[in-house]
Write a structure and sequence with these properties.
single chain, alpha+beta, 60s Ribosomal Protein L30, Chain: A, 4 strands, 52% helix, elongated
Length: 238
């Protein structure tokens, strides 16, 4: 038996669906026409706008990173500042570093701590000076009683290759030295500390990098030259 042919009614429905789909589908404009040029300009404009937005976003990120670093450094400086009353400054604190030099000294102390060329506290400093260590001795001027460290300037004067200077705050000195407690004195040594081999035969810990040592040496030489130019605490304005 032959299959039934499609009815005229069904054919009309199919034609109607095809025409509706054709009406809904967008028809691209012919090349060379004004409509085609307008579409091309619109696409290029969207791409340029997206690119511009991306560049602005990247610029904001880079600026935010820079501002963040500056803000962090400023916050650290502000955090490290301690107010020391004038009557708390020891009368024997001479030469006394000013604010500008103090900041340089504390940065040098941080570098020395990182490079493991720093002696902290009276016992370590006295031991290092008697062993002939050379460097820069920093003393806190608000230590009470001052007798705790009053003998250190004399030891520094008797030792060869040692300069000394007083800073206002024991709290700032301790913070720069990487300790949670206030510190009465630190000695920045010019020579790197000798690293002993572990007794258990394990590998020795990695020492400071050449870059860290070079930065410390340069910073130490700079502050020592400034310390030598200091005369008396009366010449320092706070």
């Amino acid at each position: 038996m032959a299959p039934e042919s499609t009815t005229p009614k069904k054919e009309k429905k199919d034609k109607k669906r095809k025409s509706e789909v054709a009406d809904l589908a967008p028809v691209p404009p012919a090349e060379g026409t004004a409509s085609a040029e307008a579409v091309a300009m619109e696409v290029d404009g969207d791409k340029a706008l997206k690119k511009q937005k991306k560049e602005k976003k990247e610029k904001r990120k880079s600026l935010a990173v820079g501002e963040g670093e500056d803000a962090t450094e400023a916050a650290d400086d502000k955090k490290s500042e301690f107010v020391v009353p004038l009557d708390a400054i020891s009368p024997i604190a001479s030469p006394l570093a000013g604010k500008k030099l103090s900041k340089k000294l504390f940065k040098t102390v941080k570098r020395a701590s990182k490079a493991r060329q720093l002696k902290r506290g009276v016992k370590e400093v006295v031991k290092a000076l008697r062993k002939g260590e050379k460097g820069l001795l920093l003393l806190a001027s608000n230590i009470t009683p001052v007798d705790v460290i009053s003998h250190l300037p004399l030891l520094a004067e008797e030792a060869a290759g040692v300069e000394y200077v007083w800073v206002l705050s024991k709290e700032e000195l301790g913070q720069a030295a990487g300790t949670k407690r206030a510190t009465s004195c630190v000695l920045i040594c010019t020579a790197p500390a000798k690293r002993s081999t572990p007794k258990d035969g394990s590998a020795a810990k990695a020492g400071p990098s050449a870059e860290d040592l070079a930065e410390l040496k340069s910073s130490l030489e700079e502050v020592v030259e400034e310390v030598k130019k200091l005369e008396s605490p009366a010449a320092i304005a706070y």
